[in-house]
Amino acid sequence: MSIKQLLIEANAIQVGVQEDDWQRVIALAAQPLVNQGYIHESYYKAVIDNTLTHGAYYVFDEGIAIPHARPECGVIKNCFSLVLLEQPIAFGDGEKADIVILFGATDGQGHIQDGIRAIVELLDNPRVMQQLRAAKQWQEVVDIL
After folding, report:
1. pTM as predicted
2. What's the domain range around 84?
């Protein structure tokens, strides 16, 4: 299943979010996935703990954050959640991001290979990035993806 299909299925696209606390952004990104039974609350808490311990290694120069944790931290089903922030914010002591894609994978291989590869392929297009940043409604995001 594609990122687009997983986002729609989980009702996990949030656009125009105004938030300045990275921990709340991660919790916000996780909430639809918790509500739909894709992850346990322990998963996003593990993402926050990992960030506090290891830093925000998942933030890339392009302003994209891809927070995640190990599958055993509470993933029930493979999933993605997308949050588009109005303004970039710093994650931990790291770089700033305004596109946040929380993902969970049920196994270690999918966790690293499939999840991150799918996200990078999607966001490796500058035009797509520009369109996502300009989107004002979730339906626009669906159309872009």
Report:
1. 0.91
2. 3-144
